[in-house]
Amino acid sequence: MNPANEPSHRGSWKHWHTDELPLRLGVSSCLLGEEVRYDGGHARDRFVAESLDRWAEWVPVCPEVEVGMPIPRPTIRLVEVGEEQRLIAPSTGADFTAEMQGYSAVRVGQLQAAGLDGYVLKKNSPSCGMERLPVYRGEQRAHKRGVGLFAAELMRRWPELPVEEEGRLNDPALRENFIVRVFCRNRWRAAAARGWSRSRLVDFHTAHKLLLRAHHEEGYRELGRIVARFGQLPDRELYAAYELEFQATLRHKTSAKANVNVLQHAMGYLKEQLDSSEKQYLLEAIEDYRSGLLPLIVPVSLIRFLIRKFEISYLLDQIYFDPHPKEMMLRNQG
Ligand code: SF4
């Protein structure tokens, strides 16, 4: 038996995962420790190069080196010229905007063809930074609304791709959101590789119901409407619409309130099996999570145990209870 299909893996990320399609992530090369920065150094990030590394097949990209800039090289920055943000080396006046834009369009197309589950970008880089970069007017800093040129092209051409910066990944909520989205996208790609059919799409959607509801109730309902249109739209269009809305829904961060709603909803499936003191114990654990006294993993683990014990079929298949490897410790924050 394929280990992924063992009964104990029902509803787990392992059930959907296949070793033939590992998590494949684009990354700014310097975050992995490659010495490609303007000063010949790197910007190795521990979470990226150690914690994530265990699960990821990396596709490292250094836009500045790939566009032909040497190591080391003069610093470059974003400069506002009229309506445009241009990529300029202040020490020489050299303008790399056209080269970087042309390169980025081609490179992003190559990455799309290869397939990725997510991308980790280096913050504050005029090529790789995804937000809040300083933009200059002449020699003066004008504002901090710049976006690195490669990052801008990546996000514009590939809106459904989960993208984050290494700095933002230090925030536990942003980190969890990114990892959830990356594993969801990997499951989507693995399911697509097996081939879609109406029943497979329904199974995929059903398994993600509680997870989606924890992220965004309206997005979850919209996805249900997309699935219901099977046969009314060309299949390819329907899958593309689902994929876009799936990632857009997951981009919404979960909240304690949304998780409490999902946990209480799950408890509803156990009302026949639990006596009043067991129900009270569970409700207290959920309440302690809501008030910040317990991390989410506690009520989730309690309910997961009960789902297995009483074999509640609908809940056994819910990926919400085990969406990513526990070694990532993502639900352990209070
Ligand atoms: S261009 Fe990107 S990958 Fe290359 S050194 Fe700068 S931040 Fe790192």
Describe the 3D structure.
This protein is an alpha/beta fold and 334 residues long. It folds into three domains: 22-168, no CATH class; 172-251; 256-328, no CATH class. The protein is 47% helix and 12% strand. It is built from 14 helices and eight strands. The strands form two sheets. The chain has a four-stranded parallel beta sheet with strand order 2-1-5-8. A hairpin with a 2-residue loop joins strand 3 and strand 4 (84-88). The model has no long low-confidence stretch (mean pLDDT 93). Iron/sulfur cluster binds next to helix 3.
Short description:
It is built from 14 helices and 8 strands.
Beta strands, count: 8
**Helicity, in percent?**
40-55%
Quick check: average pLDDT?
93
Q: Which hetero ligands occur in this complex? A: iron/sulfur cluster
Rg measurement, Å: 22 Å
Q: Proportion of β residues?
A: 5-15%
Major β-sheet profile: 4 strands, parallel
Low-pLDDT parts are none
Shape: elongated
Strand order of the largest sheet: 2-1-5-8
Q: What series of H and E elements makes up the topology? A: HEHEHEEHEEEHEHHHHHHHHH
> What count of domains describes the coordinates?
3
